[in-house]
Design goal:
The protein is α/β, with parallel strands linked by helices and 320 residues long. The protein contains ten helices and eight strands. It has an eight-stranded mixed β-sheet, sandwiched between helices. Helix 1 packs antiparallel against helix 3 and helix 6 packs parallel to helix 10.
Length: 320
Amino acid sequence: MSAPQGTATVAFRWAVRVVAVAGLAVVSWSLITAWGAVIHGNPAYLILLAGTAAASIAVLWRSRRSASIRSRWRRTIGIIGTVAAIGWLALMVWLRPFAAVETALAAMTSDASVTVSEYPTQIVMTPTGAATGTGVFFQPGARVDARAYAGTLRPLAEAGHTVVITKQPLGIAFLSIFAFGPVADALPEVSRWIVGGHSLGGTVASMQAEAQRDRRPPITGLLLYASYPASDMSDSLTIDVLSVSGSNDGLATPEKIVASRVDLPETTIFVVIEGGVHAYFGDYGPQPGDGTPTISQDLARKEISEVTLEFVNALTPPGT
């Protein structure tokens, strides 16, 4: 039995090495293809990448030992661990963020009208002139670089509204569901808030709006970009709502947006960007599963920004 056991030990050791090398490859690929998004995003993903790299190196070093796997339970644990490692690497691949592209990056620059401040967990756009007292708290779509929405939302700051784009841990809005409260508390000069988000971010924003409807300063509006609530909020949500969607969206399809009407207040404003797609609400390139656009992204962004600004202005008292 010694020969088969020796063969199994060698085969297992090489399988472990392959997985460890794959771990280093995944880390390298993520950093090379989405360097800006990883460095400028919430630190959580970078920490996981660093941990994955460290674990892969440790496993490679340990695999140099020639110890055999004699007991069945140790072999079983080793197989389970290897399978779990493969699953972990698949998760790291899936979590790689969609990086912001140039139009959005250009909007991240401060000028005479807007000061852009970037922090590990948020981006804040502050008007340099007279502020209206209205703030917009925005949740990005799943795994999307928070900077990707700078171009779409910057016109709000230029008009005097404070804009905060949260950087979600791992790019998942559900992990940032409690982020709004601390932001609002840290900006006492904002006397009213509009919460919003893109795709999954909009779903979480609707939950935040419902959960904190009695807070002060108040939440006065909900902004949904290619998004809809996860449950019926038609009666519990008593604030103004704007739903902006794309007619060619392959993810938050027109059918899904229409179906969401019954879950939102009757006063909800629905605006459709003709020819727009899911990825047009930010500047981060194409997204798998999306539809085919029949309008330029520049024109779509302009329309989205204009209808958003009109909505926010309408919720801001005159003279503020």
